[in-house]
Design a protein that fits this description.
The chain is mainly beta. The protein has a single domain, classed as Porin. It has an eight-stranded antiparallel β-barrel with strand order 1-2-3-5-6-7-8-10. Strand 1 and strand 2 form a beta hairpin. The protein is elongated and about 60 Å long.
Length: 216
């Protein structure tokens, strides 16, 4: 039993230490991420400056990611694309806003799917560790409004995302990452105001993620 414990500790230490010597981060990496996001959206008809109740969104996320890196000395330039789930939330029935209220059902916002395409700039902290910043476009399939009313609906929203992270190479073809991202999808279009204007939501959310990447 003692020998087994020593072996497990040795393997764990070797993994955390990462590969020895100079490392090459170039190539195609494929990975998965898990995270947690939260934010707030203000509902209403923004074109008419009509406000409704705010909706807090949060929840776990799961994503699939592709990264293309090119390394030059201590700098690594990259492009990453990811498809993931997003946060959601609701304010209870009878929540009141200055102009709109949730009388027929909950006021709600849901980021059903989120796709991002970002450029990355990274520097080597040491041969096996990257510190990076990333910025790019974010596209979300969103749903929300006021349940059981003309204000409920769905659309595709386009905005931007910006993030920072750390990535550690465990083996020549395996790395772990942690990052924080801010995402603003612009104005989310939902249903209508019952006439000709769109009932919408304005806000943003922040996500903290952990992930693992594999190079093939």
């Amino acid at each position: 039993m003692k020998r087994t414990k020593i072996t497990i500790l040795a393997i764990t230490a070797a993994l955390m230490a990462g590969p020895s010597g100079a490392q090459d981060w170039s190539g195609n990496w494929y990975g998965v991420t898990v995270g947690y996001g939260s934010g707030t959206y203000d509902l209403g008809v923004s074109r008419l400056n009509e406000a409704g109740p705010p909706v807090d969104v949060d929840g776990a996320s799961f994503g699939l990611r592709y990264v293309r890196n090119v390394q030059k000395n201590n700098t690594v330039l990259g492009l990453d694309a990811e498809i993931s789930t997003g946060p959601d939330g609701a304010s209870p029935i009878d929540s009141l806003g200055p102009d709109w209220a949730c009388f027929t059902g909950e006021c709600n916002v849901s980021i059903k799917r989120l796709a991002t395409l970002r450029g990355r700039y990274a520097m080597l902290v040491d041969p096996g560790t990257l510190a990076y910043g990333a910025v790019g476009v974010a596209i979300g399939r969103v749903e929300g409004g006021i349940l059981n009313s003309a204000q409920q609906g769905a659309s595709t929203a386009v905005g931007y995302t910006i993030g920072v992270g750390l990535e550690r190479m465990l083996r020549e073809n395996v790395s772990l990452l942690s990052e924080a991202n801010f995402t603003d999808l612009g104005t989310l279009g939902f249903g209508s105001n019952g006439v000709s204007e769109t009932f919408d939501g304005n806000g943003d959310f922040t996500t903290v993620k952990l992930g693992v990447n594999f190079r093939f």
